[in-house]
């Protein structure tokens, strides 16, 4: 299990999670807003979802998703998630009972179904980055325990252009945490 320390990623003094007015392309480094993520996940899961920005934190990473530019395959954005978010999102997508997610959290192991569902959730989250004018990004890697993100990817996100940490609560499921990051264009 990897740990992403808040201190390992340089803290940002400004919240760069904002959308450009009138749908204009956003400057590089702008992240999806918590409300945009909430709406996307609520529509996807068909239930109430709350998403709240939280201070940067020590994130016990259970999964990482890397979004790469379709033009040159360089890493541009990432999602890091804890065990609870992986299990809850993976279970909620398939309408599995909350107990299935809780068991995965306790065991710190994911069934193939939960893993595949979580990968699909992250693939759909890509649309939020694309809507902000980051070029066309695609999910290229979704690594779930016990796999680790490649060193090249971790290096690209060590000092991100932007980062937002989020508490995500899917009705009936365990709350989880995730972080969205934008790296320097390569």
CATH class: Alpha Beta
H/E topology pattern: EHEEEHHHEHEE
Q: Specify the oligomeric state.
A: single chain
Judged by helices, strands and strand pairing, the structural class is alpha+beta
What integer is the average pLDDT?
Answer: 82
| End-to-end C-alpha gap | 27 Å
Strand-residue proportion: 25-35%
What's the main sheet like?
7 strands, antiparallel
Radius of gyration computed on alpha carbons: 15 Å
CATH architecture: 3-Layer(aba) Sandwich
Q: Tally the helices: what do you get?
A: 5
Number of domains: 1
Note the main attributes of this structure.
186 residues, alpha+beta, Chemotaxis protein chec, 7-stranded antiparallel sheet, 7 strands, disordered N terminus
How would the blueprint of this fold be written?
Layout: E1 2-4, H1 34-45, E2 49-54, E3 59-69, E4 75-82, H2 83-93, H3 98-107, H4 112-131, E5 137-144, H5 151-156, E6 162-170, E7 176-182
Antiparallel strand pairs: 1-3, 2-6, 3-4, 3-5, 4-7, 6-7
Helix pairs in contact: 1-4, 2-3, 2-4
Protein described:
- 32% of the residues lie in helices and 28% in strands.
- The chain has helices at 34-45, 83-93, 98-107, 112-131, 151-156; strands at residues 2-4, 49-54, 59-69, 75-82, 137-144, 162-170, 176-182.
- The longest helix is centred in the middle third of the chain and has 20 residues, at 112-131.
- With 186 residues, the protein is of the alpha+beta class.
- A hairpin with a 5-residue loop joins strand 3 and strand 4 (75-82).
- It has one domain (28-182): Chemotaxis protein chec.
- The protein contains five helices and seven strands, in the order E-H-E-E-E-H-H-H-E-H-E-E.
- Strands 1, 2, 3, 4, 5, 6 and 7 form a seven-stranded antiparallel beta sheet that branches.
């Amino acid at each position: 299990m990897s740990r992403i320390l808040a201190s390992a990623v340089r803290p940002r003094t400004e919240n760069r999670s904002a959308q450009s007015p009138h749908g204009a392309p956003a400057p590089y480094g702008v992240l999806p807003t918590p409300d945009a993520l909430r709406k996307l996940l609520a529509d996807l899961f068909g239930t109430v979802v709350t998403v709240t920005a939280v201070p940067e934190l020590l994130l016990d990473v259970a999964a990482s998703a890397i979004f790469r530019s379709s033009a040159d395959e360089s890493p541009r954005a990432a999602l890091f998630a804890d065990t609870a978010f992986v299990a809850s999102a993976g279970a909620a997508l398939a309408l599995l009972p909350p107990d299935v997610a809780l068991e995965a959290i306790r065991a710190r192991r994911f069934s193939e179904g939960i893993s595949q569902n979580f990968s699909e959730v992250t693939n759909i989250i890509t649309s939020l980055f694309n809507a902000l004018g980051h070029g066309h990004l695609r999910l290229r890697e979704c690594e779930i325990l016990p796999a680790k993100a490649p060193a090249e990817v971790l290096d690209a996100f060590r000092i991100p252009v932007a980062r937002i940490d989020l508490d995500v609560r899917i009705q009936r499921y365990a709350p989880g945490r995730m972080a969205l990051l934008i790296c320097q264009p390569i």
